[in-house]
Specification:
single chain, alpha+beta, Ribosomal Protein L9, domain 1, 2 domains, four-stranded antiparallel sheet, three-stranded antiparallel sheet, 4 helices, 7 strands, about 15% helix
């Protein structure tokens, strides 16, 4: 894993929030859904002490890109999310993929994910993943 693909952990009471900045598309679901926990203008931007583990988990599950995850008692969200895979084309945005996903990289390595937002506009600097660039270039599609 490169430094670009790091995961930052924010420990809380009963839940640890996992943030993968390289996957974040800045949809702000977290900020708008639980602003007392997700504070992007503050130095420690995820403050788990301001909500229950259940509320945090519920909000993390709303993250469309998979940039946010969680673990409880040794289980991560990806371990808990087994089932079918669904693809959704977001109007003027990325291709959202939810469900068990195995991504095979050009070097032959693989990565397991529960969610991913794939670039459709071609402008992402984090291909194949969306980085929110579609908003900056006014992508339509």
């Amino acid at each position: 894993m490169s430094a670009k693909e790091k995961t930052v952990e924010y420990e809380g009471d009963g839940v640890t929030v996992l943030w993968k900045p390289h996957l974040c598309i800045h949809s702000e679901y977290c900020v708008n859904g639980l602003p007392e926990v997700f504070k992007p203008k503050e130095r420690r931007w995820i403050q788990t002490e301001h909500a229950s583990a259940e509320a945090i988990i519920k909000q993390v599950k709303q993250c469309p890109s998979g940039a946010l995850g969680y673990k409880t008692e040794g289980m991560s969200e990806s371990n808990q999310n087994k089932g079918s895979t669904q693809l959704t084309v977001l109007e003027n945005g990325p291709l959202m993929c939810e469900g068990p996903i195995t991504i095979k990289k050009p070097d032959g390595s693989t990565e397991e994910k529960a969610k991913a937002a794939f670039c459709r506009c071609g402008a992402s600097s984090n291909k194949p993943f969306c980085d929110g660039s579609h908003s900056k270039i006014d992508f339509k599609g």
